[in-house]
Specification:
Helices cover 38% and strands 17% of the residues. The protein is built from seven helices and seven strands; from the N terminus they run ββααββααβααββα. The protein has helices at 22-29, 34-43, 62-77, 88-93, 104-111, 116-125, 149-168; strands at residues 3-6, 16-19, 46-49, 55-59, 97-103, 128-131, 140-146. Strands 1-2-4-3 form a four-stranded antiparallel β-sheet, covered by helices on one side. α2 crosses α6 and α5 packs across α7. 41% of the residues are buried.
Length: 206
């Protein structure tokens, strides 16, 4: 559960502190700080771990902090294979949101091993992406792509190229030149089934 406070010692007026358990803080940091870096790149916020490692502090303007809260919420909800509780219809109305319907048979390929392909794409394009795991849209899972217009547009095109490559052999291979086998994706915010390890289907944040 998150609770938000303000004005942490050593930080500026308007900084926000989000109190979490240590496991959640460690999860948001990820291996070698990789998850925290992706969240910072997308949101534009500075994210710092507080003394005691039982809270994080976010620093940025109002838009950046709102982005940070959203991606932190989604990331933590998917910890240990949980479900995302969010209003997807409202999310789709956001100016910074685009969607791509990915055929179920191509989801694993788009994800890559333990979500590595989308993770790389997020890092490259400073975007934040996750699937609606609770609904199918004409046999497809809907991928939500959040980010600035240029990066969002590039990410959508890359995803469409990957889907085309998987389904028809035409188009472009995934970032890094390889994707998943097309099935068996783990329990994560990228489109896996509940019950996996971390949000990429592995054993911890990454």
């Amino acid at each position: 559960m998150m609770s938000v406070g303000k004005n942490v010692t050593g930080f500026k007026e308007g900084d926000e502190t989000i109190e979490l358990d240590r496991g959640s803080v460690a999860y948001l940091i990820g291996r070698n700080g990789a998850t925290k870096l992706r969240l910072q790149n997308f949101s534009g916020c500075e994210i710092a771990v507080n003394d005691g490692a039982d809270a994080i502090t976010i620093r940025g303007d109002d838009k950046q902090k709102e982005r940070a809260r959203l991606c932190i919420k989604v990331t933590l909800q998917q910890k240990d294979g949980g479900q995302i509780h969010i209003d997807f219809e409202e999310l789709a109305k956001r100016a910074e949101t685009a969607t791509v319907d990915v055929p179920s048979s191509a989801v694993g390929y788009v994800l890559g091993s333990k979500g590595s392909t989308l993770r790389d794409l997020e890092t490259k394009l400073k975007t934040f992406m996750f699937f609606d795991n609770d609904r199918l849209y004409d046999g497809c899972k809907r991928l939500y792509v959040l980010g600035d217009e240029e990066n969002r547009t590039r990410a959508v095109q890359d995803i469409k190229d990957m889907v085309a490559f998987k389904m028809t052999g035409k188009g472009s291979a995934p970032v890094g030149g390889k994707g998943g086998s097309g099935g068996g994706y783990g329990g994560d915010r990228f489109g896996g089934r509940p019950g996996g390890g971390d949000r990429y289907g592995g054993g911890g944040g990454g």
